[in-house]
What we know:
By secondary structure, the protein is α/β, with parallel strands linked by helices.
Amino acid sequence: MKVLIVDDSRVLRMHLGIMMRAMxxxxxxxxxxxxxxxxxxxxDTYELxxxxxxxxxxxxxxxxxxxxxxxPGLAAKVMMVTTEADFRLIADVLDKGADxxxxxxxxxxxxxxxxxxxxxxxxx
Length: 124
């Protein structure tokens, strides 16, 4: 199983990467939505995309919208990982194609629970 971790924070990408590797996932990273979109346009495939909402160049909201409109056959599930607690924003991003939200700060148990809700494998 492959996951693309999209966040402008290298520390958060590393933190999520450690957690996901411990659960048996292969990791790729992108520092913003534009880089994530480039990877998927080029044919990189993932079962899951963990994406921050607020990033420079292209934020997670725009990236999800473009992914779902440009790549309608995309099978990857998208989980937004964010500090945003605005329920209107959450509803908007879910409407644009995100599958789930994980609020920062989070624990490994929080992440595992969200993966289980999305019917994705959890090990360890």
